[in-house]
Amino acid sequence: MSVLRLLLKLLVLLSVLAVSVLLIQYWLATKEHVFNKEDIAKLAKQYAGQDHEQAFSKVVVELRKRYPGHILPDEDLQWVFVNAGGWMGSMCLLHASLTEYLLLFGTAVDTGGHSGRYWAEISDTVISGTFRQWKEGTTKSEVYYPGDFIVHSVGEATSVQWSAGTWMVEYGRGFIPSTLGFALADTLFSTQDFVTMFYTVRVYVKALMLETATMLTEAGIF
């Protein structure tokens, strides 16, 4: 009897989980988004090949003009280390919500590892350096250069490698909280750099607060 009760509880749990996944999937498919990958790539490509710091400054200025209220102010912009999948890079978060993020990313040293497998589509436009990607199920890798545009599809896994001095503009769309496990796992179980974890969580919360305030303002609530 206890086994039957346990099986029923498991069945209910799996049913709730399945319904939750379907509801989130429907929400993601019907929700209106702030950005789209084509516009972000087109903007970033204008500055590909330039000094990455100058290019990033121009990208941020242009984004604030196009998407007022959706890009973090200068005082909240911070370069934060990212350790994930065996590689190490640095990111500067510009925007984040439950369904989108926009950031600057790169590395000053050669690094590589596993891409992660996400419930989100991630696209990158290379500003400087080179990015190498080896897709699952293939025996050859591809190299991308400044101005190139790369899309990492939902559920896809690849081997990734950045040369020193590679910098890019990255846009993600999907269920963003699902990506945090991969983003923070190496910090939790390997580097134990909890200061970096604090910085990561803090800037994500700031971005969520900004997006919430903008949404309420646009709705006329305040």
Automatic annotation (TrEMBL):
<comment type="subunit">
    <text>Homotrimer.</text>
</comment>
<dbReference type="GO" id="GO:0005640">
    <property type="term" value="C:nuclear outer membrane"/>
</dbReference>
<comment type="similarity">
    <text>Belongs to the ERG2 family.</text>
</comment>
<keyword id="KW-0539">Nucleus</keyword>
<dbReference type="Pfam" id="PF04622">
    <property type="entry name" value="ERG2_Sigma1R"/>
</dbReference>
<protein>
    <recommendedName>
        <fullName>Sigma non-opioid intracellular receptor 1</fullName>
    </recommendedName>
</protein>
<keyword id="KW-0675">Receptor</keyword>
<dbReference type="GO" id="GO:0006869">
    <property type="term" value="P:lipid transport"/>
</dbReference>
<keyword id="KW-0256">Endoplasmic reticulum</keyword>
<keyword id="KW-0445">Lipid transport</keyword>
<keyword id="KW-0812">Transmembrane</keyword>
<dbReference type="GO" id="GO:0005637">
    <property type="term" value="C:nuclear inner membrane"/>
</dbReference>
<keyword id="KW-1133">Transmembrane helix</keyword>
<keyword id="KW-0968">Cytoplasmic vesicle</keyword>
<keyword id="KW-0813">Transport</keyword>
<dbReference type="GO" id="GO:0031410">
    <property type="term" value="C:cytoplasmic vesicle"/>
</dbReference>
<dbReference type="GO" id="GO:0005789">
    <property type="term" value="C:endoplasmic reticulum membrane"/>
</dbReference>
<feature type="transmembrane region" description="Helical">
    <location>
        <begin position="7"/>
        <end position="28"/>
    </location>
</feature>
<keyword id="KW-0472">Membrane</keyword>
<comment type="function">
    <text>Functions in lipid transport from the endoplasmic reticulum and is involved in a wide array of cellular functions probably through regulation of the biogenesis of lipid microdomains at the plasma membrane. Regulates calcium efflux at the endoplasmic reticulum.</text>
</comment>
<dbReference type="InterPro" id="IPR006716">
    <property type="entry name" value="ERG2_sigma1_rcpt-like"/>
</dbReference>
